[in-house]
Specification:
mainly alpha; three-stranded antiparallel β-sheet; 10 helices; 8% strand; elongated
Length: 277
């Protein structure tokens, strides 16, 4: 069966397609010579004793998919490690996700525990992958002396570690250094401010709606309204229904009142009655 697989998979095709379940029927792949292939390729675990690689990229498909067999992914990780243990670095403690025991211990002889550490251990144990703890180098500490988390990401970027375990905030500067896993949990932030609650008089409550504008601005608004009322009184002398005796001071006051009422209500409150209207 293996020989037939090797003979047939020399061209692009969804060789793993399962027609009954319709799985693995989209992405195509073929076997390639890793020395002469410029696309991403992976050593085949069907032929562990031979230098045979397969490639999705050669056929124009992504190298990885959410539908990939997890056993294949584990095998690929072991293959990439080449028999060496996975090197893991840890930033500063952040309980309950990352804790150093005993408390105050410094160095590689300490025990790392916590939710994220136990989660990582479980994954690596299931995949049968050995791992070891490595320190964050002086170069990475100098790169980020304030944040051990950024320093740990830098350690991965320079090749001093294969993985950093901790509850990292994914920032743009860190993404430029190394990729991150998918989100496991989110932190919620709330801004809390303090203010003095002083007792207010009735006058203070009445004044509140008007403090949004300065005194000068209110004076300007009132001036515009007064001019509008005067203009209405001048250009609409025939409107005795709204202005009464338009030629009298009472008509002028009535026009001023309608102008300010129009500003308060958001629309005109009088009906034009001039010949022009």
């Amino acid at each position: 069966m293996s020989t037939r697989r090797l003979r047939c998979a020399n061209k692009c095709k969804a060789w793993d397609c399962n027609l009954e379940t319709n799985q693995y029927c989209v992405r195509q792949w073929c076997y390639v010579d890793p020395e002469n292939c410029r696309y991403t390729s992976t050593k085949s675990y069907y032929f562990p004793d031979q230098n045979i690689h397969f490639s999705y990229g050669t056929c124009g498909f992504a190298a990885y998919s959410d539908s990939d067999n997890p056993d294949w992914m584990k095998e690929e990780l072991r293959t990439r490690l080449g028999g060496y243990p996975l090197r893991i670095a840890f930033p500063a403690d952040n309980a309950p996700f990352l804790v150093t025991e005993p408390e105050g211990c410094i160095g590689l002889n300490c025990t790392k525990t916590g939710a994220y550490v136990e989660f990582t251990k479980e994954i690596l144990t299931e995949a049968n992958i050995n791992w070891t703890v490595v320190p964050i180098s002086n170069e990475s500490t100098a790169f980020s002396p304030i944040s051990s988390y950024t320093a740990c990401v830098h350690e991965v970027s320079i090749g001093g570690a294969d993985l950093c375990v901790g509850n990292f905030w994914i920032t743009s500067s860190r993404l430029k250094l190394a990729p991150f896993t998918t989100l496991i949990h989110l932190d919620s932030f709330r801004l809390v401010t303090f203010f003095n609650v002083a007792s207010k008089s009735i006058w203070d409550h009445m004044e509140t709606p008007y403090v949004v504008f300065s005194g000068g601005l209110w004076a300007s608004i009132c001036g515009v309204m007064a001019f509008t009322g005067f203009a209405l009184w001048m250009v609409d002398p025939h409107n005795t229904n709204d202005f009464g005796r338009s030629a009298s001071p009472t008509g002028l006051l009535r026009s001023m009142y309608l102008a300010f009422s129009g500003m308060s209500s958001g629309g005109p409150v009088h009906t034009a009655a001039s010949p022009a209207a």
